[in-house]
Amino acid sequence: MPPELSPGLQALRDHSEHVLGRQLPPFANASPPLHAAMCHTLLGSGKRLRPMLTYATGHALGAPLAQLDAPACAVEIIHAYSLIHDDLPAMDDDALRRGLPTTHIIYGEAMAILAGDALQARAFEVLAGDPTLQVPPATRLLMLRCLGQACGAQGMVGGQVMDLNATGKMLDGAGLEAMHGMKTGALIRTAVRLGGLVASATESELLALDRYASALGLAFQIRDDLLDIEAGTEVLGKTAGKDAAQSKPTFPSVLGLTASRQRLDQLAQTALVALDNLDADTIQLAELARYTVSREH
């Protein structure tokens, strides 16, 4: 049986939902269609893995919860923008996300693009301007730089370009891991790193956290690829079998099912071993690793 979230992690997830609800500009300050399109994806039911990772990392190293709100929300806002753009007809062309019609299906393609643009900008505004985040200016600038790298040409966007170019082609395992290390893994690594920076983590602690997050990001993608084959659309909340239908290289198509599951187990172990190098309360981070490799949607 896949693990349920512990009460502590469920509390973090619920907290992130509450805080995210306060992060969009007031309705009066945005056009109604744009505001509605931004809310549709950001405030829809999501796993909230990335903010939970930020909160759990900061908690492990002793950062107060309120200090983690801005970075946790900024990362999730970037994730929401990426989902809107990934689903567009020119990208993955999907009509279903989290069990609901995708943003462009409801609001039109142009409004979906603009909603994604506005969310991306809002993420940096939240991280740059939240007065609750009490860190030195140099640390806040570093956090902004990390977020920018995660969602730009060195991260998500670069990975998405590799994904588009790989459609109909066959990558090897190393190429697939490099692509998803950018497309999926970069933002997961940043979610963890931002929590560490708020907590004034040392360089050695940040290295251990990066090893943990790098393994977790790839594990997340392998589990996604397996679920795309094994789970139905109703369970996933998005169109099942879409990768195969679009001839996209996936871990099962490149490595096979058995080897993909073995690689998933290896990455889970790598993530857990990385936590052993931290003199910190890493129980929640370990639980998130186990959840990531065992989740059913």
Description:
This protein is mainly alpha-helical and 297 residues long. The protein has a single domain, classed as Orthogonal Bundle (Farnesyl Diphosphate Synthase). 69% of the residues lie in helices and 1% in strands. The chain contains 16 helices and 2 strands. The model has no long low-confidence stretch (mean pLDDT 91).
* Poorly predicted regions: none
Do you know the CATH architecture? Answer: Orthogonal Bundle
End-to-end Cα distance, whole Å, is 13 Å
Number of discrete domains: 1
Number of strands: 2
Arithmetic mean pLDDT: 91
Q: Indicate the structural class.
A: mainly alpha
Characterize the main sheet. 2 strands, antiparallel
Beta content: under 5%
Total helices: the number is 16
Order of helices and strands: HHHHEEHHHHHHHHHHHH
Shape: globular
CATH uppermost class: Mainly Alpha
Q: Spatial order of the strands in the main sheet? A: 1-2
Radius of gyration: 18 Å
CATH topology annotation: Farnesyl Diphosphate Synthase
User: What is the helical fraction, as a range of percent?
Assistant: 55-70%
CATH superfamily placement: Farnesyl Diphosphate Synthase
